[in-house]
Amino acid sequence: MVSNLLAGLLALLARDAYAQSARGSDFLRFGCSQLVVERVDPIVNPGAVFSPHLHQIVGGDSFNVTMDPMTIDPPKQSKCTSCKMVEDFSNYWTASIYFRSPENGTFRRVPQMANGMLNGTLLEQEGGITVYYMRPFSGSNKKTTVFSPGFRMIAGDPNTRTKASGPLVNCHRCLSKSERITGGSGAPCDRSDTAEFPSKPCPGGIRVTVIFPSCWDGKNVDSPDHRSHVAYAPGNSSLAGDKCPASHPVRIPQVMYEIMYDTSEFANPDYYKNGKQPLVYSFGDTTGYGAHGDYLFGWENGSLQRAMDALGTNCFSETCPVLKLQSGKDLIACTKEQQAKEDVDTNRCL
């Protein structure tokens, strides 16, 4: 049976959920425009210029090479955010995807594109990421405790090259031309998605989903591997219900990313012959199994907790009156110069 959370996300991603949204839903969903694209990773490789592979970063412009929690407070030190929610100075980042030409072996970075809204229009953003914060739709405990300052975590593993057992936490959806704005129907990481790169042309783009853990040990804002302080809830889906394991008893908002890659220019069927496909992640992964994401908390003055408490009443999906929203023009204008300066559109980043 599909869980209530999955059903709600199914309705959203089918883009026919206005009636449900009008009553309220149990997730926030908003767009973040591109802040910067560069080889920097202050969680896994703090202080390194350059980090081993390229990332696309969105969120508060206080983002830097170290993001040392002892010296930086994103809400206080950011002058702007590239996210729709004004009080969200968190940073969110994922790897880039390149097209490797089967003809001459050259590389071109696949551009990102905006995601769709419930009303059939595109989110106001340039490239970037669509961010979700989710809580259980049902159960005896819908309470979620938001992250503490300095909190950070990762989902997925760039070193993975085979399909992992258990529920998918990262996945790819191949979109037809008609699905360009809708993003396709169905819940994330269901049977319409694959852990690996699609094996056929995707003229409407590829939607990559990254699902983070939903349970916390209640003590540590980080851990040496940036994973051990959090956990996925038990069950057959990475989209959690209201239960958490005893080792990680605190239910936190479940963060999820959707990243839309515009593969329309690279949808030539000749590129997908003899079991081959032309896409490669910026860390050299041609399988797609190494898809991953990084998260660094930076919401201002308890605003995220207010929003999570208001979900299901007057706060829903792309609109939440307890939060301040900014215009697409303003969030798109929030950008940052590269700290690791290089041309990111060529194979020099691989």
UniProtKB/TrEMBL annotation:
InterPro entries: DUF1996. Residues 41-299 form the DUF1996 domain. Keywords: Signal. The keyword Signal applies. Residues 1-19 form the signal peptide. PANTHER family: DUF1996 DOMAIN-CONTAINING PROTEIN (PTHR43662:SF2), PTHR43662. This is DUF1996 domain-containing protein. It comes from Schizothecium vesticola.
